Amino acid sequence: MDLVTVNGLTKRYGGIVALSDATFSARAGEVHALLGENGAGKSTFIQILSGAVRHDGGSILIDGQDYRPANPDAAQARGIAAVFQELSLIPDLSVEQNIWFRHEPRTLLRTVNRGEMRRKTLALLEKYSFPTLRPDRELRRLTLAERQIVEIAKGLAKDPRIIILDEATSALPAREAEWLLKLTRQLAAEGRLVIFISHRMAEVRAIADRLTIFRNGATVAAHEANAVSDNEIVAQMIGRHLDRLYPERIPTATDRVALKVQGISSGSRLSGVEFALREGEVLGVGGLQGHGQRELFQALFGATRATGAVELWGKPVSIANPRQALTGRDGIALVPEDRRGQGLLLTKSVRENLTLSVIKRFTENGLLSRQKEAELVKEMVDFLRIKAGTPEQLAGTLSGGNQQKVIFGKMLLTQARILLLYDPTRGVDVGTKGEIFQLMRDLAAKGYAILFHSSDMPELVHVADRVMVMRNGRIAATLEGDHISEEEILRAAMLETRAA
Amino acid sequence: MTVEQTAEMAQRPAEMKSVNPGIDWRGRALDRAPFLVACLMLALIVAIYGSLQSGVFTLDEINLDTAAAMTLMLAATGQTIVLLRGGIDLSIGGMISLGTVIAATRFTDDPSTTAFWALAILALGFGIGALNGLLISLLRLQPFLVTLATWSILNGIAMIILPTDGGSVPSWWVGFASAQLFGLTSPVWMLLALLVFWWWFRATGTGITIQASGSNEKSAFLSGVSITRVNLVTYGLSGLFAAGAALFLVTQTGAGSPTIGKDYILPSVAAAVIGGVSLFGGRGHLAGTLIGAFVLTLIGNLVFVLHVSSYWQPVASGVILLLSVLASSIAEKAARSRVQ
Q1: Which among B10, B31, B223 is the nearest to A101, CB-wise?
Q2: pLDDT tens, A44-99?
Q3: What are phi and psi of A190, to 5 degrees?
Q4: Per-residue confidence at B14, pLDDT binned at 50, 70, 90?
Q5: Which of A380, A406, A443, B338 has its Cβ near the most Cβ atoms within 10 Å?
Q6: For chain B, what percentages of helix, strand and coil (3-state, to nearest 5) are there?
Q7: How many domains does chain A have?
Q8: Sign of dihedral through CA atoms A52, A53, A54, A59?
Q9: Which residues of A touch B9 (CB under 8 A)?
Q10: Nearest Cβ partner for B27 among A88, A138, A179
Q11: Confidence band (pLDDT; 50, 70, 90) for A240?
Q12: Would the CB atoms of A72 and B222 count as touching at under 8 Å?
């Protein structure tokens, strides 16, 4: 018998239908992939399953019994744990306090039994071969990837029968992502149901037994994983055949150097990086995660202190006080790693997010010109095809792909022609990914210079004109033309590691 | 899939180290920097005070100063819980006033009557606080606005009960503040009791949940926390401690006052902030708040022995508050740059 059976599930938010007819069934002991574009209803579906929101209609049966959790607690009581993409962790608690939050072992005085909690933490981390974590470290001191791992541990701590992994690999470096895939199989082998959500087809292929595809709030198909092709899956996800994910790569680079970097260093993570990014060029930055890519982007944007010489459009600029020096037409714009934390004000409207940093551009004699603002906003919404009801819709209510488009719009409105894109397709659906790649090539053709980091290697291979591979804070190799391949990138990234 | 296969799959990828428990000493020191700065300030003030006035380093002085600071300490304990939750409670001003006027009009020489009213005041404090929490949750209003409103209401009721300062409490109630055990007066024992309470409270599920909700409310909700219940308990405790502050205050004044509570609203917040409690929730410790309360109280003594106008007291308090905020922001920056 199926462990979970969902029929005709519906959910509305005001006038917006998030789920219209979701059907789903899954067995214990399987990895069941949930696929669909952003906005297809996956998030709503798992929020309902995990008790964060309540459904309006339809039925959910678990073990044949009606299931309608009033809150996350009730869901946990029925053995359902969700590993959220927007993590459910508490910044000011330690790793172990987060893992056992509200389920801490207690002493006779009703206080937390710290010794017991530490013992249980180590046992849990050991049982599932977790990557290194310091149980006493406060969560806010952890990187995004480490937090994701803690969130996974927190889900497992409840020993759930059903565990939902929402884009859990997207924040993880390659090695940890690989560990998670193995963990997923291990959990299924223990007889649990794993509901696995990912935009990376290769991962789904590697571990899923069955898959269910959502589109526009409804289930369009369910398959045995080995009985369906990638093309069929993608076609069902987007409702048409995607001709190609990656746009044609026509070289548009000129001889003019937009960004010249000489000997830029920052702490131990970045040492003596040199390169030149040309007008009209998409320059990829690759390598294994944690080899200085993040530090390079942060140093260029002035988020960390760095030494070295930087020239923008032939003019030397100080990176001691970069924010001032790098803004405006001749400056730099950044798409940051953590779009929810750094890039977007979720409780503000699309309009406000777009124009917040460029208010000067539609100010006349000290007064805001609402008309001018509206024109700029409309232009951007149309250009990027942002799917929002009105420009006044709150950014937090948009799908992940559309949020990312708003960040692109915000960046383009600064008029800077040097763009730093740090993993711009993270957690973005296939359709929007294609649009973002096309946009990058279009911008390059218009003379923009783009520095592009992606944690998904094929993106670098197919979109960038050249790829710089980083290793231990240095440029290990710069690949061009036919030499750009996943194999070459990996070779350059791992050469030293292998020798050691 | 066989057990062996599963075990093989669980092999840790190469280069991933095993679990490494250990103590992050530097991180902890940075976290406690504002608290350490508060301790330093207190030490400095005590040193100056002690060099100008004889008899500062005696048990008597400790007894006296603790009694002088205890009302603020009780009020600030409640405020610390609310700040930890990421809120603020202005209504404690009204609750303290109301508590003193009820005590001054209802307490009699009959111990059982007085005990009844004392318990009633405490219950009222918790009830009104819980109501604050309920209003904040159900109406989704700012804590600042809700507690501003209840402050005004409670203040008005206090005025109706006792329009001017007056009334009285029995002498044995007043005598409580100077009762001694092993050479220490009851306020010093209360101070120790507060610390023990905090040590316990912070490790309980309720304490952790309050802190977690102040650290990140959405995460707490997703983890199964009932935000309504958290607010109810948080503001309830704040009201309870404010009522306790009122009961102690009348041992010092011997009478009721319908306006006295407002003198404790902002100082209760200041004491917490000086002690390193974050206004944004999630971080702080009662020990810091109590140090902060001592700092604010001793500033008054210092101004007195320096023979300058007492108007310098608020000036000095303000400067100290600024220094504290500065210290915590520097520590915060240092901690953040360490992460990167």
Answers
A1: B223
A2: 899 999 998 899 988 999 988 899 988 888 898 899 999 987 678 998 899 999 99
A3: -80, 0
A4: very low
A5: A406
A6: 75, 0, 25
A7: 2
A8: negative
A9: 182, 185-186, 189
A10: A138
A11: low
A12: yes
Give the list of residues 6+ apart from residue B40 with CB closer than 8 angstroms, or none.
Answer: none
C-alpha A435: how far from chain center? 16
Count structural domains, chain B.
1
Q: How far apart, in whole angstroms, are the C-alpha atoms of residue A262 and residue B183? A: 71
Which chain A residues touch B208 with a CB distance below 8 Å? 93, 97, 101, 104, 112
Q: Let me know whether A231 and A145 are in one domain.
A: yes
Rounded to two decimals, the ipTM of the complex is 0.78
Lowest-pLDDT range of A322-326, A415-419, A431-435, B299-303: A322-326
pLDDT tens digits along A361-377: 677 777 777 888 888 88
- CATH number of the domain that A402 lies in? 3.40.50.300
Residues 85-144 of chain A with CB under 8 A from chain B are 86-93, 97, 101-102, 104, 106, 109-112, 118, 122, 125-126, 128-138, 140-141, 143
Q: Please check whether residue B19 lies inside any domain of the structure.
A: no
List all residues 6 or more positions away from B224 whose beta carbon is below 8 Å from its beta carbon: A51, A71, A72, A73, A76, A102
Q: Which domain holds residue A109?
A: 4-238
Query: Mean pLDDT over all residues of chain A?
Result: 84
Strands (E), A359-486: 363-364, 367-368, 418-422, 449-453, 466-471, 474-480
Show the beta-strand stretches assigned E in chain B. 180-181, 184-185
Burial class (CB in 10 A: 0-12, 13-18, 19+), A20: middle
Domain that holds residue B298: 59-325
Look at residue A85 in the predicted model and tell me its pLDDT. 74
Q: What is the rounded CA–CA span in Å between residue A201 and residue A220?
A: 18
Tokens linked to A51: 């008790």
